[in-house]
Design brief:
Layout (H helix, E strand, L loop, with lengths): L7 H18 L13 E4 L7 E4 L11 E3 L23 E4 L16 E4 L4 E6 L5 E4 L6 E4 L5 E8 L1
Parallel strand pairs: 1-9
Antiparallel strand pairs: 2-4, 2-5, 3-8, 5-8, 6-7, 6-9
């Protein structure tokens, strides 16, 4: 019995055809909506929930921070209460261990609120940690831009 020798080039072509056929037969996966904008993770090392927003007051030239309990975009005409929930132009509470993309209306998260009376340690993806000290102050909303991924690392109140 002799061993059939296949030239290396033909073997590579045959393998490519087999792999291509297998890949073509795999059905497309159903995936959740991909994030179109900023994302926020409230990591497991954080000690409490934080508010996130899927809207921002004004345009890209506006300041990156705003000191307030809620943003103007959270309010509707003739309603004194801010909109809370998984709906457009609203805020929602992001629990410890939660990710903004867990909520369909927050695939493009625009802001995160640093709680009043607390020191929040956080960082942007690939960046260094920094503290935001809100002891004795109002809450502070920080802007999250479309390409940014923001992490809440720790909250001490």
């Amino acid at each position: 019995m002799g061993v059939t020798r296949i030239p290396v080039q033909r073997l590579i072509v045959r393998l490519a055809v087999i792999v291509g056929t297998v890949i073509a037969l795999i059905p497309p996966m159903t995936t959740p909506a991909l994030a179109a904008g900023g994302e926020v993770d409230n990591t497991w090392t954080s000690s409490r929930a934080v508010l996130i927003s899927n809207c921002w007051d004004g345009d890209d030239d506006d300041p990156y921070i705003k000191e307030s309990y809620f943003l103007d975009c959270h309010y509707r005409e003739n309603d004194p209460h801010p909109v809370i929930g998984n709906v457009p132009r609203a805020a929602i509470s992001l629990p410890v261990g939660g990710r903004s993309t867990d909520y369909s209306e927050y695939n493009d998260t625009d802001a995160v609120r640093f709680p009043a009376g607390c020191v929040t340690t956080a960082h942007f993806w690939g960046g260094s940690q920094y503290d935001t000290d809100r002891r004795g102050k109002l809450p502070l909303w920080g802007r999250v831009r479309g390409w940014q991924h923001f992490y809440i690392d720790k909250i001490v109140c």
